[in-house]
Amino acid sequence: MARVTKPRDYISPSDLTFLWGECKKCMWLKYNKGISRPGFMPLVGPMSAYQEQSYRNVSTKKIHKSLPAGEITMWGQSVESVPLVIDGIETKWRIKGKYDVVAAFKNGTHALIDCKVTTSVMEEDKVNLYWPQLEAYAFALENPLDGVGIEVSETGLLMWRVVGAATDLSKTFDFTCDKDYLSAGREPKKFQKFIAKVITMLDGDIPESGEKCTICKFVEKRESLGVFYILQTGILVAH
C-alpha cells in the first residue's frame, strides 16, 4: 500500500534518476499529494553503506587511477540546497538528500561519488542514467542552505559488480565483486535545463502515467474491474 505523507518542498536526488524516468504521474503524486508508491529495493541502502564504510579516508587513487590526487574526507552526510532559481525566479523547491562519499583533491576542489552495486555490465550508459542525481548532489554541495559551499569538479559512480559467491556451508558466506569507477564529470548547465523541466512538471497539472509504470497499470486494471476497497468504521468493505 502506498505511504501517505505531507506534500514536500524539496527534491530528492534519487527521484531524478528513477521516478522521473519511470512515471511522472507517480512523482507528481509523491511531491504534491504526499502519496509514495511502495519500494522494492531492500538491499540498496545496506550495500551502499558497506561501500561507503570501505572507502573512508582512502586515497582517491584507490578508487581509480584517473582521479586527481586526494582523499575521501566526507561520507554519509545529509545536504540541503538553497531554493532553486528558474528563469530568474526563486522557487519553493530545494535539493535535499544524503550523499555517499565526497573526496577532497589536493587542488582544493572536490568529487561527489555515488556508490552502486550491480549484477550487470558496468557500461557508460550508467552515467546517462545517474547524472541528474549526481549533479543534484553537486549543486547542493556548492549551494548549501546553511554554511559555506565547496567546489565540485568531478562526479562519478563507484561500481561494485557481483560476480560470484563463496561459502563453507557452515556460517561463512562471501560475495565477490569487480570494481570500477565511471566518471560523469560536471554538467551544471545541462542540469539547470533539466531541473527546470522537473519543476515545471511538479508545479503543473497532474501528468499522464508512464507507459512502463507497473504501479499505475495495476491501479488502472483494478479500477477497470470495478474492484474498490473502502474503510468504513474500521471495517474493510469490497464491492
What would you say this structure looks like, in words?
- The chain is an alpha+beta fold.
- The chain has a single domain (3-238), classed as Lambda Exonuclease, Chain A (Alpha-Beta Complex).
- The chain is built from 6 helices and 14 strands.
- It has a 5-stranded mixed β-sheet. Strands 2-8-5 form a 3-stranded mixed β-sheet. Strands 1-3 form a two-stranded antiparallel ribbon.
- A hairpin with a 5-residue loop joins strand 11 and strand 12.
- Helix 4 (125-142) crosses helix 5.
- The chain is globular and about 55 Å long.
Class derived from helix and strand content: alpha+beta
Order of helices and strands: EEHHEHEEEEEEEHEEHHEE
Mean pLDDT: 87
Q: Give the radius of gyration.
A: 21 Å
State the CATH class.
Alpha Beta
Distance between the termini: 19 Å
Strand order of the largest sheet: 4-9-10-11-12
Query: What is the name of the CATH architecture?
Result: Alpha-Beta Complex
The gross shape turns out to be globular
Low-confidence stretches: 230-239
CATH topology: Lambda Exonuclease, Chain A
Percent of residues in beta strands: 25-35%
Count every helix, treating DSSP H or I runs of 4 or more residues as helices.
6
Question: Portion of residues in helices?
Answer: 25-40%
- How many strands? 14
Sheet with the most strands, sense and barrel status: 5 strands, mixed
How many domain regions? 1
